[in-house]
Amino acid sequence: MTETDTSRAAEATRVINAAMTLVAESGLRGLTLRDLAQAVGKSTTVIVNLFGAKAGVVEAMANAAYDLDEAYHRDFAAEAGDVAFGRDALFALVGRYLRDRALPSAAFARVRQEMLAASTSYDFAASLLVRWETMRRATWTHILAHTPRLEAYGDVLATYLIVEEFYAGALAERAEYEMIAAEGLGGLIDHMFGRLDDPTPATDRYVDRFVIPGAPGDLLEPGSMKLKLLEAAADQILAEGVSAVTNRSVSGAVGTSTSTIAYHWSDMRAFVTDALWHAVFRGMPRYLDHRRPSGDARPDDARWTELMLLTLQPDGPGGRGFYVNYARLIAGICLEARRNPGFRELAMMLRGPEGGGTYVNRDDLWPTHFDLTRRAATRFALWIKGEALAAAATGRAPSPARLKQAAALLVSERS
What we know:
The protein is an all-alpha fold. The protein has 3 domains: 1-52, Arc Repressor Mutant, subunit A (Orthogonal Bundle); 58-212 and 293-415, no CATH class; 213-290, Tetracycline Repressor, domain 2 (Orthogonal Bundle), CATH 1.10.357. The chain has helices at 3-26, 33-40, 44-51, 54-80, 87-102, 107-117, 125-144, 154-171, 175-192, 201-209, 225-240, 247-254, 260-264, 268-282, 301-312, 322-339, 344-351, 356-360, 362-365, 374-394, 400-410; strands at residues 370-371, 412-413. A two-stranded antiparallel sheet has the order 1-2. The chain is globular. The mean pLDDT is 92.
């Protein structure tokens, strides 16, 4: 390699590292060539000569992030060692994993999260994310393989951790979150070891104090200005993330003045919060809405699988894509909460009762042979949202076999 090649490679590495830091701080949408040039003290022309355009920078950065994360997982597995785990040791190990990946220094993990959460992606993203998720699942399967009966949980645990990782990054060091997350994770690990589910006092305490928000659009007249504003904002949130919603973007989409939102809501934060809940409730299928019991007979396994598969498929009516959109909402809010503390309470409102609707609605949705405890509902809810994110980002078709396997591994059978 010539001196020129060495210098060019070093310069490219500096740009990639700076891009990773900027994405961790401002998100993938916030990455601009101008900010990147300022960060490395070069002109945008230098960056274009190295990478072609922003898409080239993002691809090089994402591949570098994958390499760093692969090295992290390799070191993590080596540190775990080839030993059979007891319950407490495995609980500590998984907790350590979540804490590691919430650290500000783990910018490579943030790059992966940004790519998973994106509703639109670059041409290279799907194939890279396939490698990424395969690597994570293989790591956890290897770690668990040395403990009798746990190897089967490697894939399920890796998928469960996808969404919990988002929550941990947004809510780390918040005691209420850590207690609730510990109950969820503890319940999963107890279940893996064949133990019965314990009560969930921390979760129950939060849920007892939690006021379930109503659907903001339910009481609004069709065609009303307030509903139009909520619809426009919800569309923007699902398409581009929470940070895309501004007074100007929503007002422009509706064709009204920028003072209209202020007329209907006390401030922009209240409006965005209502828009987020509107995005959740408007796409929620009736069979998942605990506020509106269907009154139908409990489904058999085939019907349950059909209903769940709909939530993992491309967006559409009848519940199609519900968990994909919901998981992206959660991911976007958690990423925003890392940058803006004002979103942390909203992230906590989503995590605290995680799986609560599934649990309340269990008699309408789950076949009779499943014993859906509160902890089981939480772990299945986190798993299916992780599955929704991964499947959508990688282009993997939803699989009935994966759904059935996850349910069998996460939820006990009635005796």
